[in-house]
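User: I'll paste a sequence; please echo it back and then give the predicted structure.

Assistant: Echoing your sequence first, then the prediction.
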Amino acid sequence: MIDIRSDTVTIPTVAMRRAMAEAEVGDDVYGDDPTVNRLEALGAQMLGKEAALFVPSGTFGNQLALFTWCPRGTEVILGEDCHIIAHEAGASAVIPGIQARCIPDPGGVLDPKDIAKRLRKQDLHAPATSLICLENAHSLGKVATLESMDAARDLADEWELPIHLDGARIFNAAAVLGCSAGEIAARADSVMVCLSKGLCAPIGSLLAGPRDFIDAARLKRKIMGGGMRQAGILAAAAIVALNEQVPLLAEDHSRAKRLAQGLSQIDGIRVGEDSDINMVFFSRSANDDAASCHPLAAEKIVGHFRGQGILINPPENGVFRFVTHYWIGDKEIEAIIAVSSKAFSKCSSKGGSCRELLSGKA
């Protein structure tokens, strides 16, 4: 199957499977796993931080950062569409026990003026701000400029606040900006990066930052249940991901642009222009009298793709998202465009309110 639901669906490469089979391991809770230790040292070096910690997932890493930085009952400033708010199951209310103060984040960027309006010192009525969270690349596909991050950094320094960066796709952002991941991470005190997603490792993320912060996070990782034992089997694949897969991310971006161009040629489809990385967002054309796809038609579209050997997600708020990754090559891009042309032409403005799909003729 061609799977473009997300870059989380990537499977390990042959080199990763070989490294996992041959990995030297030990008890990581004791600090005895040499492969985990190598991974953490490599990650810290690539991100320009003093130390790093291997954790099970990106959500785990973000919540661990909040749990470590923020006293319970304090307030965190973050974007209203960021991953921590939109896709982490409300964990910040359960694990660190913080109050999230959301602000608009168009293009994945927090306006420093909007941040400044919401920063607070503790008094009888208000919680103190304890952290500012940024995301780059944003989970909606946008890459924030270094200048925009600098503006948030200046404000955080003025208030003596740390910044945590959700850098799940920081290497994608670096490929777009033409800089190193370390240059992006330098704008934050801590950073989380996913080793799965486009990098193809099967499991795991890194949380990196100052050594004393990582020492404190190691204890809290244990509290959260993330102290794994012979985790070197997983870390071995992650080392391959950092050494071999990072340079290939730009190819995923290029194929996403080719896919977007092909989709834009289909009648009734409007491709968004707001993704910088390996994601393509599109919807029905604005001039269609049924621009947001009928739920039943959306189900039939998903089923049509599945029948042709392609896995996609249904639209969210009328918007489809296709995601390229290492296992989507040129041949797969052409197949996706061809199937899309047949599927969406039956749900185009010419077809009128998805009539053919709803009638079962798709």
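The first strand starts at residue 2 and ends at 3. The chain is about 40% helix and 15% strand.
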